[in-house]
Design a protein that fits this description.
Layout: E1 6-13, E2 16-25, E3 52-62, E4 67-80, E5 87-89, E6 97-102, E7 112-120, E8 128-134, E9 137-141, E10 144-152, E11 158-171, E12 186-187, E13 193-201, E14 204-214, E15 217-218, E16 239-243, E17 247-253, E18 255-256, H1 283-286, H2 303-328, H3 341-352, H4 354-363, E19 372-378, E20 391-395, H5 396-431, H6 434-442, H7 461-466, E21 469-484, E22 487-503, E23 509-518
């Protein structure tokens, strides 16, 4: 920053070529130094009276050294919001943006993971919590979640919040690991894989930020080249940028979940950042403070970790050997259904194993993907290739990927079956109401035989809806007596049970009966509202 410099910022409205111009003095700085400039300016002639696009420009000016440099400039979209004479800058584009940083400003020898996200509306820190997932398993809660910058409307009301989640137990690297400092930290540079940070707002997931660590470094998305200018499309604003708060941030996508943000525009454009919001950096700048050191042997595991890994591999081997070929064999890759009943049963069995698997996976989440498994596993199928029955050693990361694919295939089949069942039962539900509909939900037509007076089977939705009487037959144990060597004993024998309901025209139950007897099936006389005649 040159001597005698000022930041000159000016704004123009559509009806006012120069709305205002303001100067803020800045100190002389070396290239490595930063400062904060407060651009608030309260003495503005003429308030906004309608939604508008406001042009804003920033210039670095030093008359002493003859410097005039144009800084970020562009348009701010100002929208009219609910209420009288209330306006706010459209920042909806930020809702799908996140900044992932390794905070070298706070601690460069072992920077903690910090993730910045943006929420719409007013929110307090006590309403928020965040968790970090590694290869699908949760392993760390945020040590601190705080609200920082607050976005306000023209009347001072809060319309949005910047939220930062910090993970003290998750570090980018540890330059002092040889000293034993931070021995229980999860080091990103030693654990390649897939990560997610999930932000909860009022105990509901509001944001999910996913990133990949490969070769010890966070991967910068290809959609945002590190040196490319940021355009009007917020999806292109992905890359690395210097940050006085953290050192450098990686700009990534944030997935919006739930409805806690209220109405927002997914197509909102970051119009102010027509050029760039700050100096572009590279991933090398993120890792500039990291000291490269020889990596320890991947095979060197302590006894506790070795036992946990053994238990995990035993579970993986059983699940893959039992279900992988059935659910994601070569001929099933990409299949979307319909699936036969055996596939659905297999999928349900796999998903019942998920909680136990997740517990075992969490116990070895710190073991790197590159760790070679010293045992044999059947090769995973690939598109167009048969399942290779031979067995070969593989990496832990490959097994994790296969397990995620197995669970995904199972979820696809269960979801497809649920959707097919809903489609099958929809004609019935559309005709039923009141108690009839409630009773139907407990006795779906694809699992129960619907009969009416005399045991006549009803086969169509119309018959079921119009019937005054419903009966269901099932087996039961009927008390009886028998004589064994002259001694009477109480026994139970296989019998039948019929339960019936009578409905009013509006579908409300007006009567119920239940009959039972000995035998394989009920007689037709049991399907009525008077007791069946007694045989003499």
């Amino acid at each position: 920053m040159p001597a005698g410099a000022s930041i000159v910022w000016a704004a123009a409205r559509s009806d006012e070529p120069l709305w205002f111009e303001h100067r803020v003095a800045v100190p002389e700085l070396a290239e490595s130094q930063t400062t904060t400039v407060d651009l608030q300016h309260w003495e503005v002639d003429g308030d906004l009276v309608m939604a508008d696009s406001v042009f804003l420009s920033l210039q670095l000016v030093s008359e002493l050294e003859g410097v005039v440099e144009l800084l970020p400039h562009g348009f701010l979209a100002v929208d009219a919001i609910t209420g009288e004479h209330r306006f706010a800058v459209d920042n909806d584009w930020l809702l799908t943006t996140a900044f992932v940083a390794l905070d070298v400003v706070d601690e460069f020898d072992a920077p903690k993971l910090a993730v910045t996200m943006f929420l719409k509306g007013a929110v307090d820190a006590y309403q928020l919590e965040a968790h970090c997932f590694y290869n699908g398993a949760r392993f760390a809660a945020a040590s601190d979640v705080e609200t920082r910058y607050t976005f306000t409307a023209s009347d001072g009301s809060v319309v949005g919040q910047e939220v930062v989640a910090e993970f003290d137990a998750v570090r980018g690297w540890n330059n002092l690991s040889d000293s034993g400092w931070g021995g229980d930290w999860h080091l990103l540079d030693a654990n390649d894989g897939q990560y997610e940070v999930k932000l909860l707002r009022d105990s509901r997931v509001a944001r999910v930020v996913a990133f990949t660590v490969q070769g010890g470094r966070i991967v910068v998305p290809e959609s945002g080249a590190e040196t490319a200018a940021w355009g009007a499309d917020s999806s292109a604003m992905r890359g690395v940028e210097f940050s006085p708060e953290f050192g450098a941030v990686i700009v990534l996508d944030a997935s919006v979940h739930g409805d806690l943000d209220g109405d927002w525009s997914a197509g909102s454009s970051p119009v102010f950042y027509a050029v760039s919001a700050g100096p572009q950096a590279s991933i090398d700048d993120v890792y500039a403070q990291r000291v490269e050191r020889p990596k320890p042997s991947l095979a060197a595991l302590d006894d506790e970790t070795a036992r946990a890994l053994q238990a995990y591999l035993d579970r993986v081997e059983r699940l893959l050997a039992t279900w992988e070929a059935d659910l994601i064999g070569a001929d099933l890759i990409g299949a979307e259904g319909p699936f036969d009943y055996s596939q659905v049963l297999a999928a349900e069995a796999v998903l019942r194993e998920r909680p136990g698997y997740d517990e075992l996976a969490a116990a070895v989440h710190h073991v790197p993907d590159a760790h070679e498994v010293d045992r044999a596993f059947a090769l995973s199928p690939s598109a167009g290739e048969p399942v290779d029955a031979s067995s070969q050693p593989c990496t832990l990361g490959a097994l994790r990927d296969r397990m995620l694919a197995l669970f995904a295939a199972a979820e696809t089949r269960v979801s497809a079956a649920a959707g097919a069942e809903d489609d099958e039962l929809a004609p019935y539900r559309s005709l039923l109401s009141g108690d009839k509909l409630s009773l139907f939900e407990d006795h779906p037509a694809n699992s129960f035989v619907y009969t009416t007076i005399g045991g006549r089977i009803m086969r169509t939705p119309e018959e079921v809806a119009e019937a005054e009487y419903w009966f269901f037959e099932g087996p039961t144990d009927v008390p009886s007596t028998a004589t064994v060597e002259g001694v009477d004993v109480r026994v139970t024998v296989r019998g039948w049970r019929v339960r019936g309901w009578r409905f009013a025209d509006d579908g409300i139950i007006v009567g119920a009966v239940e009959f039972s007897g000995v035998g394989q099936t009920a007689p037709s006389s049991a399907f009525r509202f008077a007791p069946p005649p007694t045989k003499t």
